[in-house]
């Protein structure tokens, strides 16, 4: 479809990002009066029965979608991914050693923040590799007494993704694995047998900013450093069912609608298949351009959610973005730290959006190549 024939343009923003149109329409219809109760969700008490029901449903749908085992608590928190960079070491480091795998800009930020609370070491890094390939877990130097090992399973800026989680036990480590899955949560299943804690800001693959999801194995609760603010102590949050303080009610409501929408699409398996199809289309268009577009990430580490690419001739960048906008393809400009372009293909991006982008990549290269 041409932009003029569609209701809305395709939004390739990295986050805050596109939200399914059905979700936005339902939220708009409920804005003034949620299910006949006379007020909208933003105006209700978080302790009232209406909102308690919304939050409980959101949590149980999320548990079902990701098959979260009973020994994991799901927490609805605030503070975002960067908040968790401090909250995780406060809760899990016990003031000891923490190991990181550095695969791009977001894990690098996590490392810098954790250094304020723990003795941090980098067990492996892809820095300096032209293809940015994720180092094979068998090469990771995990300290025997590490409190946990942190990875970023999808590097939003660099376009690097773990397609399987490492099995630390098989590497001879008992340390829990901590996973920042902010930018690909709900696009693939999670092997919880390999995870101690996972966290994700909601504003990428789920929708609203202001909500941070935390999945924590219950044996990891109750070890927070004394300096930990109570609202960021996982045990306090868990014991109060994420209602110790006022949670981000509107964001939880929108996230709940998105969970329902994902279930209706066929669940995480359907999102997984869609992510494979969309990203394959766009990478194929980039790779078929004969070097007009460049993405150097090793195929096995390429992200299906965030696809950075550069025009060989940067002087065409502005024309590329202007032409894209004309076709209703929005927010393709790359992160300021790396330049170039980036297409984020989150769950809310329909297949037709990826097809439209692939067609534009081809047309633009043909016209300017
Ligand atoms: N981790 C990852 C992987 C991210 O993509 C982002 C946001 N781009 C963050 C952490 C930081 O999230 P926030 O802005 O919510 O603190």
Secondary-structure map:
Elements: E1 10-11, H1 21-30, H2 49-65, E2 72-77, H3 80-92, E3 97-102, H4 105-114, E4 119-125, E5 146-152, E6 154-155, E7 160-161, E8 177-180, E9 197-201, E10 212-217, H5 234-239, H6 249-265, H7 267-287, E11 293-294, E12 306-311, H8 317-326, E13 329-330, E14 341-344, H9 351-368
Helix pairs in contact: 1-6, 2-6, 3-4, 6-7, 7-9
Ligand kinds: 4'-deoxy-4'-aminopyridoxal-5'-phosphate
Quickly count the helices. Answer: 9
Low-confidence stretches: none
The outline comes out as: globular
Task: Work out the number of β strands.
Answer: 14
Q: Which range best describes the helical content: under 10%, 10-25%, 25-40%, 40-55%, 55-70% or over 70%?
A: 25-40%
Average pLDDT number: 97
Distance between the termini: 25 Å
Question: What order do the SSEs take from the amino end to the carboxyl end, as H and E?
Answer: EHHEHEHEEEEEEEHHHEEHEEH
Describe the largest sheet: 7 strands, mixed
Gyration radius from CA atoms, angstroms? 21 Å
Q: How is the quaternary structure best described?
A: single chain
The amount of beta strand, in percent, is: 15-25%
Briefly note the structural class of the backbone.
Answer: alpha/beta
| Cross-sheet strand order for the largest sheet | 2-10-9-8-5-3-4
